Structures are given as C-alpha cells and as structure tokens.
C-alpha cells in the first residue's frame, strides 16, 4: 500500500515497530490533524516544529512526520526547555486556556471540542503577529546568550 496525502504507508509504521492498535490510533489522530492543518492554513505553506516533549521523539511520531511533513523541524534542531521561543507556548496556549477557563467539562472529548472551538475563533492576524515575533525573540535569546531574555523584548 502506498502512502496517500492523508496517511503514511502501513509498511513504514510496521518498520517503526508499532502494533496494529497503535497504528490505527496514530492513523486516526493523523487524519484529523492533517485535516485541521489543511483547513486552517488553506493550502498555504507552514512548518511543523517540534520541541523536546518525549512523545516527539517516539517512533510512531517520527513515522507520521516523515510521511506527511517533509522538512519538519526535528526536536534536535530546537533548544530543549525553550517555551519562550515557541509561539504555542508563549502565546497561543494561554489564549486558548483563557477562552475555556472557568468551564467544567464532563469528558475529555468535551474538553477537546471546546479547545477546537476556541482554536477556530482565534484571529488569523493574532497568529501572524505571534509567529512574526519569533525572530525578535530569537535575537533577544542570542543577545542574552540563552539566558532569560524576556526583559529585552
């Protein structure tokens, strides 16, 4: 079976040492993730960046990335413990948390649904400004020689 734009080849996943249940789970996650990314970016270019979360180096994650996101920024290309350089960490997660704060969710699926609604409501201009601020943050990080640099912003 060949890879399609929506799923990696099963052979690639088995080479990574995954069992059938894990493969099915990863394919389901991948399908919804790719669909969300394509809808959000409307066919425009984007770069998938990883940080040092343990799951980002797992065989299953790498298999999916290799199949669907050629040129992804591997965790080894990004400094460990650097949330001040990751737009999702220094800006977006806080906004998402603010949009759902104070609400009680009966299930994890309810929480996921609320986060998807919150994500869809974020203004594209806000996301562009956030991403565009990364270059300034990188320069400040270099100037501070990797130390705390937020005061330089």
| Overall strand count | 0
Structural class: mainly alpha
Uncertain regions: pLDDT < 50 for 5+ in a row? 1-10
Shape: globular
Order of helices and strands: HHHHHHH
> How is the main sheet built?
none
What is the mean predicted local confidence, pLDDT? 76
Strand content is under 5%
Terminal Cα separation, in Å? 50 Å
Rg from alpha-carbon coordinates: 18 Å
Alpha plus pi helix count? 7
Organism: Caenorhabditis japonica
InterPro entries: RNaseH_sf
GO molecular function: nucleic acid binding
Protein name: Tc1-like transposase DDE domain-containing protein
List key phrases describing it.
mainly alpha; 55% helix; globular
How is the secondary structure organized here?
Elements: H1 10-15, H2 20-41, H3 59-68, H4 87-100, H5 108-120, H6 124-132, H7 134-143
Helix pairs in contact: 2-3, 4-5
Protein name: Tc1-like transposase DDE domain-containing protein
InterPro entries: RNaseH_sf (IPR036397)
GO molecular function, one term: nucleic acid binding
Short description:
This is Tc1-like transposase DDE domain-containing protein. With 153 residues, the chain is mostly helical.
Description:
This protein is mainly alpha-helical. Helix content is about 55%, strand content about 0%. It is built from 7 helices and no strands. Helix 2 packs across helix 3 and helix 4 crosses helix 5. The longest helix is centred in the first third of the chain and has 22 residues. The radius of gyration is 18 Å and the shape is globular. The N terminus is likely disordered. One of its GO terms (molecular function) is nucleic acid binding.
């Amino acid at each position: 079976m060949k890879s399609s734009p929506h799923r990696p080849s099963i052979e690639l996943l088995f080479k990574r040492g995954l069992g059938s249940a894990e493969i099915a789970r990863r394919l389901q996650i991948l399908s919804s993730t790719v669909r969300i990314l394509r809808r959000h970016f409307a066919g425009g270019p984007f770069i998938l960046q990883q940080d040092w979360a343990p799951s980002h180096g797992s065989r299953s994650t790498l298999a999916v990335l290799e199949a669907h996101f050629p040129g992804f920024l591997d965790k080894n290309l990004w400094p460990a413990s650097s949330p001040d350089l990751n737009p999702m960490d220094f800006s977006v997660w806080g906004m998402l948390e603010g949009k759902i704060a104070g609400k009680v969710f009966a299930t994890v699926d309810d929480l996921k649904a609320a986060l998807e609604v919150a994500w869809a409501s974020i203004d594209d201009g806000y996301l562009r400004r956030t991403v565009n601020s990364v270059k300034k943050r990188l320069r400040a990080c270099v100037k501070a020689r990797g130390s705390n640099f937020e005061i330089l912003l």
